[in-house]
Amino acid sequence: MTASIDIDSATMTAALDARVRRREQRRDFFKSALGAAAVTAAGAGALGLASAAEAQTTTYTDADILNFALNLEYLEAQFYAYATTGTGIAANLQTGTGTQGAVRATGAGAVPFSDPVIARYAREIAADEVAHVAFLRNALGTTSAVAQPAIDISVGASSAFSAAAVAAKIITAGQTFNPYANDEAFLLGAFIFEDVGVTAYKGAAPLLTKTYIEAAAGILSVEAYHAATIRGELYRKGIVAGSALITQVQGISDARDSLDGGTEIDQGITATTTTKPNQTTDTTTFPVSNILPADANGLAYSRSPNQVLNIVYLNAAAASAGGFFPAGLNGTIKAATAS
Predict the structure, then answer these.
(1) What is the pLDDT of residue 209?
(2) Pairing with 99, which of 81, 236, 246, 275 sits 20 to 30 Å away (CA)?
(3) Is 127 within the bounds of a domain?
């Protein structure tokens, strides 16, 4: 039977306090230089980070890139807040420029965790994501930070989570995937987001001026820890006899690859062939783990803003809204071309 975990707002506030000093140390430095320089998408295109059309027509400032990241942090923060407390993030963290949207959260609620370790991981990740939202908003300032757009983290046959699960072949059309149902469902829901966040920050790093690399790298590192924790727990639970998790994770990975273009860069949590030095393919006891998705050089892969938009909109075609952002993102970077 599942056991209820008491996770209240006071606990989350206490967890956030541990991060305040680090955020305050960086905030003044980060904010003082915001908007100092623009990085053209033409330069990004030379690095394989944007399409030819983007390279010819678009100039992104640091604020554009940071607001793009803020949109993604809103999504993650709301999901983890609901999964751990049953409610969303504070209203004063949702205001800003552009159209503020509501959170579709019908059916969302605190996960009845049966594993107290996963519950603690979830609480820590939730606190980190709320801290990221607050940090980016403070760095951008009230006149530059975008408002939270409309977000869909609801439960239902037509929800974004269910659409993603259908694409991953976890369920069939008309069925419902509930990421708040239990530990395993929560981990799958988190997996949908975490790898995308890591690759998005890595892909956006060359678009930022040198001033912001340190702060962006700090967030990227935390997101990578989150992703590795989620992947590790999915692997640990997935190697249990009768578990479908490894197959389900691979389905999510394949679905993301089908959305972000022809190049296969996503990876599941097991490997059938050796892709990393000294990694054995001996599967006598367990399948080979692939907790850290990377190439043969041990380097994480990158996604362009356009690829990220295709994934969060759940649409490989040109789109400006859909999926987890039913009204689109706020800010300059919000329209995706066909992947």
Answers:
(1) 81
(2) 81
(3) yes
Q: Kindly state the tokens that stand for 52.
A: 């030819």
C-alpha triplet 255, 260, 261: angle, nearest 5°: 105
Is 328 domain-assigned?
no
18 in helix, strand or coil? helix
Environment class of residue 143 by beta-carbon count within 10 Å: exposed (0-12), middle (13-18) or buried (19+)? exposed
User: 10 Å Cβ neighbour count for 86?
Assistant: 16
Any domain includes 126: yes
Calpha distance 160→153 (Å, rounded):
7
- pLDDT, tens digit, for every residue of 159-214? 999 999 999 999 999 999 999 999 999 999 999 999 999 999 999 888 888 778 88
Are 250 and 308 a contacting pair, CB within 8 Å?
A: no
The position carrying tokens 């590795």 is 228
Map tokens 């944007």 to a residue: 50
- Asked if the structure places residue 64 within a domain, the reply is yes
Task: Evaluate the CA torsion angle 21, 64, 202, 29 in order and state its sign.
Answer: negative
Are 327 and 99 a contacting pair, CB within 8 Å?
yes
d(CA 60, CA 41): 7
Residue 228 has pLDDT above 80, yes or no: yes
Please say if the pLDDT value at position 337 is more than 90.
Answer: yes
Higher pLDDT, 32 or 68: 68
List the structure tokens of 158.
């037509």
Q: Which domain holds residue 217?
A: 37-312
Look at residue 278 and tell me whether its pLDDT is greater than 70. no
Report which residue type is found at 217. A
CA distance 127 to 150: 21
| Distance (Å, whole) CA 333 – CA 149 | 13
At residue 277, the pLDDT reads: 63
Q: What is the mean pLDDT of residues 123-128?
A: 98
**Distance in angstroms (rounded) separating the CA atoms of residues 84 and 326:** 23
Measured distance CA(281)–CA(87) in Å, rounded: 44
